[in-house]
Sequence to fold (670 residues):
Amino acid sequence: MAVELIIPILAATVQSGTPILYATLGEMLTERSGVLNLGVEGMMIFGAFGAFLFTHLTGNPWMGLFMAGVFAGLLGLMHGVVCLVFQGNQVVSGLALTILGAGLADFLGTPYVGIATTGFTPFAFPGLSSIPLLGPIFFKHDVLVYLSYMLPFLFWFFMNRTRWGTALAAAGEHPAACAAAGLNPQLMRWAGIFFGGFLVGLGGAYLSLAYTHLWTNNMTGGRGWIAVALVIFAFWRPGRAVFGAYLFGGIMAFQMRLQALGATLPSSLLLMLPYALTVIVLLFSSARGKGRTAPAALGVNIEPGE
Amino acid sequence: MLGFRIAKRQEPLQWGSFFIFFAALALSLGISCLLLAVQGKPFMHALYLLWDGAFAHDYALEDTALKSIPIFLCSLGVAVCFRMQVWNIGAEGQYALGTIGATWAVLTFPNMPAWALLPLMFVCAAILGAVWAAIPAFLRLKLDLNEIISTLMFNYIGILLLEYLVYGAWKDPASFGFPMTVIFPDTAIIGSMFGRIHWGAAVCVGVGALLSVFLKKTRLGFELMAGGENPRAARYARMPYGFLVMLVMVVCGALSGWAGLIETSATLNRLQPNVMVGYGYTAIVVAWLARLRITSIALFSILLAGLRVGVENLQLELQVPAAFAGIMEGLLLITVLAGQFFNWYEFKRIPRTKDSGTAGEGER
Fold:
């Protein structure tokens, strides 16, 4: 009986957590390369808009998905130009990017508010969806969710088992040594920014193509910032990021259900939950102990001539 | 490759700041015009409307001046924090708590005379705003919690708290269900000083003057102005670093709280959710542009207030979405950040020597 109630909530948890997972892993990639990009919220919204726009124009949600990544990646490249080329302060540049990205999405999206489009619809994963308990929770979603299951593993594999991943990590830990080894840390950072941004855009795309099939303002509702916090919470590794993303997914799903049930708690207080939880989650992320610290060169620009 | 290399200057470019700013402004306007063109709006006319709406008539100037008051107060606070590399982006939430504090005073003591009520409102707004800033400060000092994220989260929470109150306990029974408090009694409204300009302007001048004196005449102030690279300032001022962090955050919280109070009392005359218009975020842009020079903060506050008023005009005349202001602010900040590169770096020709194969070597 209780199980009947819990399964839909858990399934909703997976759905809610998916965009956060994409965004967290994207920002994690960027930060591992040494660049702090606080523009995730803006990039996510802008990506969501890009996804919507191109799906609306072409009728093909995969096109929309790809363009979401491109849009967000381009915005990230602006951050790259300001920080990597012009030595701008990474914190402030990221904040500017959030303001810009949100403004752009709002501005360009005004003619489209409330319009619906095609998107990704859930389908039962052949075979696996029949597994009792796990099936309905994990295997009755849309394809973007299924893709997200592979992402943390791919991230880990890339960073730890490939040459490029190691080089990228080196750019984030010790750019001078990276350069001395004949690699180009700046190039690694460009890649980290763009491809990390691409993933963030995919997270945004999920919101306008799968979670809903329309465009409204402020679709992300702070998820981008939650992703930034989760990168810290995850100690810059994909494993804990999964846990964190689904934790927030759960809170948001839970909060929506409470509201729908007409709970006596006013909706404003319920809505506070994810934000309060973000702060609480960070309390459990103090960087003490091996393997918990940020990439050593995070946020520090490489001076020209180094 | 190009015969140039990038070298750090011996000392930063002096007069460059204003040149950089105007170049950045031109670039931002240019890109914004492109965006307007994409939406099919006549951008030359839009530029005219921006100027016309913000600065071209008495009425417009008053509008701009009125909007610059809360921006100025928030920016002062944020600038002080940024100077100490305390990345307080919570001015918006601290502003919200200020509105709550002021409203609480009014609703609890509706019959108090103005000479007592108004100061009480200022005290309450300052306290609540300061507390809202102090908590993230405390979390940073004791638990190493990143203040960017905590202050931002507190923004969301603060605004939701405001909504909780105006939708619930503080809702005016006669408001047909709209989320707003009762209209404030005259004793709670900050009155007009000169035409439409209210006494909030005097508060700005007063606070600005005080801060200016503090920065120029006290040792702590001087150190904050000179470099503000965290531990150095503390060492010369002989005050613990933690105390300084708490101090700048509390000051910002109080000032942002006052901005909120002033808007609630003088502009809206009641508390409702649309008191939140993003002044806290605009303050970040101003604070970065102006650093910790009070006159620059005033100037940029007026400029960005003018931008908001001008965009309102664009909304009216050309149906340009309000988000256009956000685009301009973001672009401005980005272009200024990029432009500040030239404060610190310059291009130097690589000297051509006989065996030019070695020229420029060592610079990647």
Notes: Chain A touches chain B through 52 residues (CB under 8 Å). Chain A has a mean pLDDT of 90. DSSP finds 13 helices and no strands in chain A. The two ends of chain A are 64 Å apart (CA to CA).
